[in-house]
Amino acid sequence: MSPFPLVRAAAARAPVRVALRPRTLQFRMQSSSASSSSSTSSAAAAKAPTPPPVPGPGSGPASAPTAAAKPIPTASATAAATGTTASSAATTTAGSAAAKATTPPLWRRLGLVTRAVDGYANSQRKRPYTTQLIGAFVIYLLADLSAQRIGGREHDPVRTGRTVLIGLVAAIPHFKWFVFLSRNFNYASRTGSIATKVLVNQAVFAPTFNTYFFGAQALLSGEDLAATGQRLRDTLPPSLVNSFKVWPATMAVAFAFLPFEFRAIFSGCVAVGWQTYLSYLNRQAELKEHARALTTVADGQGPVAEVAIA
């Protein structure tokens, strides 16, 4: 047994102490690192903003009011707001258009005149041919009476009857012509359609009707073909020239602004004045023919000329 038991014991324990020191140091270093990391995390957590408490199920609002966060509009909310604005604008526009549509034009607010025009339009839709015949009778009667008053001569009922008969025969073809123009020459351009209808009417209907009117007047009054041809040569050129002063504007207004059932009465009102002019022009041609007959009398053919005048 060693005399120095304490020394041996110390020597025996010394390696253990040496071996434990690194571990202790390592443990201490780990503890220090953990403490530093914990301190750093605590400091960072202290600096970070605290999120608002989330209420649990059944809990009431938070006791301490916090600043309300401004909501960010989503795409659906923006689209809904835009749709609402557009819908409101469309509703306003539609309301304005409806208000304008419900306001009748001036010519529809003339009381007795409006009711008379409406009655004519209803008759035109239900009985078009009968309405046209009645209208032609009134138009040609008034036209010839006016034309005879212009000359200041005594009224000739035979001439009036002749003029009315010519108008009645032309009434239905005239109506059919209006129907033809309404159903045809309808293009994408409204202005082009109206212009074409007016040009076709002037190129086809005006010379055809004027030839019919003056030729029938001559034949019904007892003229032969030669005299009828002379009547046409005297009356057609001025009537065609003057028709361009009246009917293009009349037809343009009728096709641009009036429904079909009102076009006939509108053109009929204009036709009263126009037929007055045609009757007057026809009467002037008759007087010119009589003047030629009187010239023949002066050349020594008195009996023949007197019979022709009679």
* Total DSSP E strands: 0
Question: Judging from the principal axes of the Cα atoms, what is the shape?
Answer: elongated
What are the segments in which pLDDT stays under 50 over at least 5 consecutive residues? Answer: 16-20, 58-68, 303-310
* Radius of gyration (Å): 54 Å
What is the typical, i.e. mean, pLDDT? 75
Strand content: under 5%
Class based on secondary structure composition and strand pairing: mainly alpha
Main β-sheet, in a few words? none
Q: Considering DSSP H and I runs of 4 or more, what fraction of the residues is helical? A: over 70%
What is the H-and-E element order?
HHHHHHHHHH
Secondary structure topology:
Elements: H1 5-47, H2 75-102, H3 112-126, H4 128-151, H5 157-183, H6 190-220, H7 225-243, H8 247-257, H9 260-298, H10 302-309
Helix pairs in contact: 3-4, 4-5, 4-9, 5-6, 6-7, 6-8, 7-9, 8-9, 9-10
Characterization of the model:
The protein is mainly α and 310 residues long. It has a domain at 116-309. The protein has ten helices and no strands. The protein has helices spanning 5-47, 75-102, 112-126, 128-151, 157-183, 190-220, 225-243, 247-257, 260-298, 302-309. The longest helix is centred in the first third of the chain and has 43 residues, at 5-47. Keywords: Membrane, Transmembrane, Transmembrane helix.
